[in-house]
């Protein structure tokens, strides 16, 4: 029985081991889609999930559901708590770690083009980057979080006052990962799964090194232009969000015990970089996952990697792995979906779909506090509502 992430509850599911084409690939657990159990759209539950905004924890929310299984969209709260501007369903937002989907796709494209060997170590492509006492770290382990690379060690991850003071700073990707490489490797690569930005910032560095082009240039050429994603881009050092966009806010208590609600919409995203800097819209994210799952970005062999989970355990002992090479898999009310969550200060979002694209979900909310798991409770409520049959709330 494989473990899937918690969304208020945990569900078990059957798994089957599949073989990949590369000889050195670890055994992976393939999980099929469960569209047969897909419920009808629950309008009442979805409205309730985002009702009552703004409140003390979230200022605004938008939800977009598409696919042959039904359509639904809704917004709640304010895009600007000062002007009381309503949330725009077409607004831009920071997608945070959902960026990892795009990074993984581009690295897999390079493998498809035989410009990267996923079984070769990072040390081959970025000599001298990893400490000399680290073991060989296969490139594929960067994508499925089994690399063993330690986490980035920057106050951005846990200190609101630090990030406000340094919100416009530029960080080179090597500066970011070097903060992690001060520490010993967490485990032997390929043996355990532990989520980390370090792996994806490193993957972005490989992408740039092999292609000789910037991350932003690769994103345009490989994904956004071919798919016609006119509202998805990598901001480099630009701290702004284009209009329309919901403002992001951060609520915190300073060292003197005073509570603040600061506007953090403007922020340089060079720290997360290839792991979390992309800006997009709900419509563009819907199109991206639709075309990705339709096979328009990757061939059959690389597509297998998107829907296969390493047959390893989570490093914290919480159960079986649930990240593939680029995606995460969750199961809610018997519905299996694949996609990715993301968060930055003031923003939490995600995109998920059944493998057959019968149902696709994009959400973007504006939490005022950073949750321990990166996603506020309202996200859990949206996910449950999106998979709850209408009759259960009548």
From TrEMBL:
It is an enzyme of class 3 (hydrolase). GO terms for molecular function: hydrolase activity. Keywords: Hydrolase, Signal. Its EC number is 3.-.-.-. Residues 48-375 form the Beta-lactamase-related domain. The keyword Transport does not apply. Pfam families: Beta-lactamase (PF00144). This is Serine hydrolase domain-containing protein. It comes from Kibdelosporangium lantanae.
């Amino acid at each position: 029985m494989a473990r899937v992430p918690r969304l208020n509850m945990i569900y078990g599911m059957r798994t089957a081991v599949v073989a990949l084409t590369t000889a050195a690939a670890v055994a992976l657990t393939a999980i099929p889609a469960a569209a047969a159990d897909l419920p009808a759209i629950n309008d009442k539950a979805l409205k309730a999930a985002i009702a009552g905004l703004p409140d003390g924890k979230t200022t605004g929310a938008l939800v977009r559901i598409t696919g042959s299984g039904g359509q639904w969209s809704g917004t709640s709260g304010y895009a600007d708590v000062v002007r009381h501007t309503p949330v725009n369903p077409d607004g831009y937002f920071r997608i945070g770690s959902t960026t990892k989907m795009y990074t993984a796709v581009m690295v897999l494209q390079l493998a498809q083009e035989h410009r990267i060997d996923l079984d070769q170590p990072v040390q081959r492509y970025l000599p001298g980057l990893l400490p000399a006492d680290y073991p060989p770290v296969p490139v594929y382990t960067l994508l499925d979080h089994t690399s063993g690379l330690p986490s980035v060690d920057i106050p951005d991850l846990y200190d609101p006052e630090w990030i406000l003071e340094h919100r416009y700073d530029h960080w080179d990707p090597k500066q970011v990962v070097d903060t992690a490489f001060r520490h010993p490797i967490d485990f032997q690569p390929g043996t355990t799964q532990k989520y980390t930005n370090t792996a994806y910032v490193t993957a972005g560095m490989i992408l740039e090194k092999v292609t000789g082009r910037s991350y932003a240039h690769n994103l345009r050429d490989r994904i956004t232009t071919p798919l016609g994603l006119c509202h998805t881009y990598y901001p480099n050092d630009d701290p702004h969000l284009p209009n329309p966009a919901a403002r992001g806010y951060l609520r915190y208590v300073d060292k003197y015990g005073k509570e603040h609600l600061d506007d953090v919409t403007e922020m340089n995203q060079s720290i997360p970089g290839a792991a979390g800097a992309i800006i997009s819209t709900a419509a563009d994210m819907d199109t991206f996952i639709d075309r990705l799952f339709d096979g328009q970005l990757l061939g059959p062999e690389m597509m297998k990697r998107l829907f296969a989970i390493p047959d390893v355990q989570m490093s914290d002992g919480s159960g079986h792995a649930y990240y593939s090479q680029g995606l995460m898999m969750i199961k809610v009310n018997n519905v299996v979906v694949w996609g990715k969550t993301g968060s930055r200060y003031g923003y939490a979002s995600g995109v998920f779909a059944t493998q057959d694209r019968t149902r696709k979900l994009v959400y973007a909310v504006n939490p005022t506090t950073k949750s321990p798991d990166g996603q506020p409770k309202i996200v859990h409520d949206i996910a449950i509502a999106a998979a709850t049959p209408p009759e259960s709330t009548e």
